[in-house]
Amino acid sequence: MGLSIRAYARQRGVSHVAVLRAIKQGRVPQEPDGTINPAKADASWERSTDPTRAKSKAKPKPDTAKLKPVAEAAVGSVRETLKEQGLPAGGNVTFVQARTAHEIAKAHLTRLKLQERRGELVDRARATALVFRLAREERDAWANWPARIAALMASELSASCGDMIGQPVEIGAHRMQKLLETHVRGHLAELAAIRPEFR
């Protein structure tokens, strides 16, 4: 007595449909009682199967060295997400914890997309470029300010000092511009040294 079609299919590593097809095509002999003799069937199967069409039973094993860092990064990401939410993340991450972290991440992403559509979020690169451009324009405006205002300030100071002491006082516009430029550039250097903290 031989094996049933399903038992032989399991032993051979194929589906029972493939065994039925092989029987129908005459590639696998059946015993009179409908069972299959595995030794005869294997020999017949090998003889009648085109080696170029045969599927390899041995599946290539995944390179665990390549998968391990990805798995560790994923587990680390799950732990980090859970910690951010104040949830426990022990040594071994369970499926429930991973699923919870996944749902939390999806909720955050959905919220960010909604905020972006509402116009509540801005593109960081664009915002940084805009702030840089505005800061440069402000710096240039301040650097050019002494040249524009020095003559006016010198004239006003000459008049007011002259009134105070009762005789004319002459304050040079060029000297006033140089003094203003020195102090404005010093102040701009102090401002440039400030480094904002991004949180």
Keywords:
199 residues, mainly alpha, 7 helices, 68% helix
What can you tell me about this protein's structure?
The protein has 199 residues and is mainly α. The protein folds into three domains: 44 residues, no CATH class; 55 residues; 70 residues. It is rod-shaped, with a radius of gyration of 42 Å.
What is the gyration radius calculated from CA atoms?
42 Å
- Count of domains: 3
Major β-sheet annotation: none
Number of helices: 7
Order of helices and strands: HHHHHHH
Number of strands: 0
Question: What's this, in brief?
Answer:
With 199 residues, the chain is mainly alpha-helical. It is 68% helix and 0% strand.
Q: How is the topology of this model organized?
A:
Elements (H helix, E strand, L loop, with lengths): L4 H8 L3 H9 L13 H11 L15 H21 L10 H24 L5 H42 L7 H21 L6
Helix pairs in contact: 1-2, 4-5, 6-7
